[in-house]
Amino acid sequence: MAKSQTAQIALERLKPLSPKAMASVFADGWMTVWEGAIRSGKTVASLIAWLRYIQSSKERIFFMTGKSHGSLMRNCIIGDFGLLNLAYPYAVLTKDEAGTSVIKIGDKVIYLFGANDSGSYLLLKGLTAGGWYADEVSSHPENYITEALARTAVSTDRRNFWTLNPCMPSHYIYTKFTDTWEGLPGYRRYHFVLSDNNAMPVERRKELERQFHGRYYQMLILGLRVTAEGQIYSDFNRDEIIYTEQPTLHGVQHYICCDYGSVNPCVFLDCCIDNDGIIWVSREYRWDSREKMMQKTDAQYVQDMRDFIGSPDDTDCIIVVDPSAVSFITALQVEGYFVKAAENAVSEGIAKLASIISQRRLKIHESCVGLISEMEGYSWDERSVILGEEKPVKVRDHGPDALRYYVNTCLTSFDLLPQKG
Length: 421
Hints:
Layout: H1 6-12, H2 19-25, E1 31-36, H3 42-56, E2 61-66, H4 69-77, H5 83-86, E3 91-95, E4 101-105, E5 108-114, E6 131-134, H6 142-151, E7 159-164, H7 172-181, E8 187-192, H8 202-211, H9 214-220, H10 238-241, E9 242-243, E10 255-259, E11 266-273, E12 279-287, H11 289-292, H12 298-309, E13 318-321, H13 326-335, E14 339-341, H14 346-358, E15 362-365, H15 369-377, H16 382-386, H17 398-410, H18 413-416
C-alpha cells in the first residue's frame, strides 16, 4: 500500500467536506464518535478518518462491526461512498481461511463482523487489534461493545471510531459509554445535522426535511436525542385517513402484506401506491385463533389466501410475509404464489410510516376495522423506555406490523419522499 495515498484519494473523490466533517477526519484520540442526523455525512467522514488511521498505524490487524454483517457491507463497504470505492485500487475484499470476510489494504487486514445478538461477541474472543470501527454502534448489544473495546486495549496506537444515530437519552450507549467519557483526554464527539452534508443537493435536503415531522424530524434531521412516549402514530386521524368508496386505480402493483400468527392473529392487508404517492389499504383479512377458539394450519391459511386474492394463475399480487413465518412462506410458494420475505426493521419502518401519515398520504378503507383500531392504539412500551430501548407494546400490533412490512419492503426511497405540489 502506498501509505501516503489511500486517504488522500478518498478525500479527492468527494465534494469538499464541511469544516466540521474535515475536523473530525483529522481528530486524534483513542475514541472518536460521529453522532447525529441521517445522511449528514458522518459515515463518509468517519470512513476517511478510519482509512487515514489505518495507513499511518504501526498495527496490522483491525476490525469493523455493524448491526449485522449485511448492514455493515451496505453502509460502509460497498457503494459509491463505501470503503472499497474510497480506497480503490488498494482495498481488496476477500475471506480468510476460517471464512470470515476481510478487507486487505497492502499488508493491513480488516476483519468484518456483525453484532446481531448478545452471543455475537464470542466471535471477537482472542482477537487483538489496533483499532475498531463500529457502524450504528447503538444497535450493538452492550456486552459486544465491552468486548470489542477490550480487543484494542493493548494497541500501540489505539483508535476506536463510532457512528451513532440518535437514541433516547436513557439508552445505554450514553449512560454506560459516551456520556461518561465527556471531558476525558483523547475522547472526541462530533454532532451532525442534515445540512452538514455538502454533497447533498439543496433540493434533496429540503425534500428530506419535509418528509419527517415531530420527534422523527428532531431525531433524523436535527440528530437530537428524543424520548419515545405515548401513541406511536400520533398524527393518525380517522377523518383524513378512512375512506368509504374504493377508487379506480389503474396500472398499480398490489401487495398482500401478511403478519403471520398461529396462536396470535394472522392478518393480510391489500396495499398499493398510486401515481400521486398515496398509499391505499383496500382490504383486510384477519383470523384471531383465541377469539375463534380454533387454530388454523398453514394449508388453511393458504386456502384463505386463495379466497382473498384468487389462484396464482388469476392474480398478479406479490405476497410479502413476516420473515419468521418460514413454513407459511414455503406453503405459499409450493402453491405457486410469488412471495417475498418482509424487511423487518422495526424502528426504520415506524419512522417511515409515521412520515407518510404526517404527510396525509395514507388511506385505509372503512372495512379494515382491525387495522384502524390497532393503528390508533399502537403505543410505546414504557418499561422498555425506562431501560433505554425503543419498542412498541407487543399487543394488538398485527395490522401495524403488516403495514410496516409494506412500507419497508415494497416502497422505494422515491416513494417515501413528499410528492411535488
